[in-house]
């Protein structure tokens, strides 16, 4: 019996870890919010006064952190919004495969081979150019809601 309960808890925990609730009135500019199921960074917040139906409303303008699309949402300030858990991790670049995947070295010495090259042209040229020149590159990977994407490159010097 206890094995079954434990299994259920771990299942629920995995799904719940993608987002957490936060009151709409407490979300600020440069914070994160989920709009239409996408993790976004808030670029603008405006709050309307309470109307005759009693709720002040928050108008959020946000940019999707993975594809850069602008999204908007209006939520009563007393209601909860989903906020994504956003993590940023640095990995050292080992190799770039011909099919556009990168091989990265994790902190514990394993490799991570499931990330594609960035779609952003300037970032892509920095990664490819630096790799071809033999530079030691560290890639910052942003992850949220089960998605990951390379978001920055740092040169840590030559070999």
Number of domains: 2
Roughly how much helix do the residues carry, as a percent range?
10-25%
| Termini separation | 56 Å
Q: Helix count, per DSSP?
A: 2
Strand residue content: over 45%
Question: Which shape, going by the Cα principal axes?
Answer: elongated
The H-and-E topology, N to C, reads as HEEEEEEEEEHEE
Mean pLDDT: 84
pLDDT under 50 segments (min length 5)? Answer: 1-16
Q: What's the CATH class label of the largest domain?
A: Mainly Beta
Largest sheet: 5 strands, antiparallel
Question: What layout of secondary structure does this protein have?
Answer:
Layout: H1 2-16, E1 19-23, E2 32-35, E3 38-47, E4 57-64, E5 70-76, E6 80-84, E7 87-96, E8 101-105, E9 111-116, H2 121-132, E10 135-144, E11 147-158
Antiparallel strand pairs: 1-6, 2-3, 3-4, 4-5, 7-8, 7-10, 8-9, 10-11
Account of the protein in words:
The chain has 159 residues and is of the alpha+beta class. It folds into two domains: 13-84, SH3 type barrels, CATH 2.30.30.30; 87-158, Nucleic acid-binding proteins (OB fold (Dihydrolipoamide Acetyltransferase, E2P), Beta Barrel). 17% of the residues lie in helices and 52% in strands. The chain has two helices and eleven strands. The protein has a five-stranded antiparallel sheet with strand order 9-8-7-10-11, with helices on one face. Strand 7 and strand 8 (101-105) form a beta hairpin.
């Amino acid at each position: 019996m206890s094995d079954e309960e434990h299994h259920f808890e771990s299942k629920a925990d995995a799904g719940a870890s993608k987002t957490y609730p936060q009151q709409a009135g407490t979300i600020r500019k440069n914070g994160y919010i989920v709009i239409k199921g996408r993790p976004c960074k808030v670029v603008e917040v405006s709050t309307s006064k309470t109307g005759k139906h009693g709720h002040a409303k928050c108008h959020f303008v946000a940019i999707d952190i993975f594809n850069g699309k602008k999204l908007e949402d209006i939520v009563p300030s007393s209601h909860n919004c989903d906020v994504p858990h956003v993590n940023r991790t640095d990995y050292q670049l080992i190799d770039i495969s011909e099919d556009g995947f990168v091989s990265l070295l994790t902190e514990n010495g394993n490799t991570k081979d499931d990330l594609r090259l960035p779609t952003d042209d300037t970032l892509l040229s920095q990664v490819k150019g630096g790799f071809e020149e033999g530079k030691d590159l560290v890639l910052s990977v942003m992850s949220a809601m089960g998605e990951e994407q390379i978001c920055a490159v740092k040169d840590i010097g030559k070999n």
